[in-house]
Amino acid sequence: MTDQTPQTAPETKAINTAEMNAALEDMLRGFEAFKETNSRRLNDIERRGSADVLTEEKMERINRTLDDYRQTVDNLVLKQSRPELGGNGLGRTTAHLQHKAAFETYVRRGEVGSLPALEAKALSIGSNQDGGYLVPPEVEHAVTLAVRDISPIRAIATVRQISSNVYNKPFSTTGFTSGWAAETASRPQTANTALASLSFPTMELYAMPAATTALLDDSIVSIDQWIADEVKLTFAQQESAAFISGDGVSKPKGILAYPFVAQPSWVWGSIGYVPTGVAGGLPATAPSDKLIDFVYSLKAQYRPNARWIMSRATQAVVRKLKDTTNNYLWQPALQPGAAPSLMGFPIAESEDMPAIGTDSMSIGFGDFGRGYLIVDRVGMRILRDPFTVKPYVLFYTTKRVGGGVQDFDAIKLLKFGVS
Question: CA-CA distance, 135 to 196, in Å (whole number)?
Fold first, then answer.
């Protein structure tokens, strides 16, 4: 008998327009206060050679307040887009509902029941030798959405799902031969194309939330939501750090783990950089010119989808910069879910990017969708452990993730150094 259960999209929270508009207005008012205070600071420097201490302290307070306003808006957007796990979910077929019920019985009471048979029947591509059972699709979907919203690189990079442990991407080392030919003219023989392969292995990312038996016995508690809430932050934090600076050993290889080469000498396999010319800072005179040079170190075909990536502390520094016509280079987001911009390009904020210091690579710029690839193996698994930390029950939760640079010409770094 064919299941006739209607399939609907995940429900979302009702949008509180008044609350969102109020948060955006607060942020814009904060930016106006920032500009006024920064103008006073610059006038003090021009007249006396240094800024008043109280003005500097006020600047720092406003900077922190602007960041808090931005976080408030981001949280409201995230709350509105969060799927409801208890409603009609993704692909609710009979087999799915059977798996969901069997999985909940396993999590709550440790009874395996029909789970192995259901996974074997589905010929699960998520199976592995480490044991455990696949979580229901809506739980994996909820975790993936939450991690994407928290992890800045995942939100801007290309993401591929695979069923194996390694993704191999071929690319041409010599370029493909091409040309023009008339409709009836003979076609010249093309030269052989030299191909190489980039390998993106997936690594095991795990979390181990603990629950009490009382929580598991409470039928009111949504086990799906509890699992998603417990693991998403841990997964996001681990991924974010790895995508920036991971060494590729038992974790993805991050952007800052590749060799750095000054842009005029750039070669494939390395990340090109532009120095600021000042150790640990930007030039005192016309600092915006250095950012312009940096933007145009990226080829034209990458610039339409380019964005910045930097930490909150670095953003506080560039927020003070003006162009030659006295306009601020940094501008706040004007719409819910949008990012602030620098010179018209959106900013992705990552606390895993290094703070400004001597020879630090504190600002990245490029088309990260073309430049960085994240590989997810399908399936997230849970292994129940009621023995290790009695009376608590541990849930060893795993997923496999890989990542690395796929186009080395699409990402550039700003080096806060002399050369």
Answer: 37
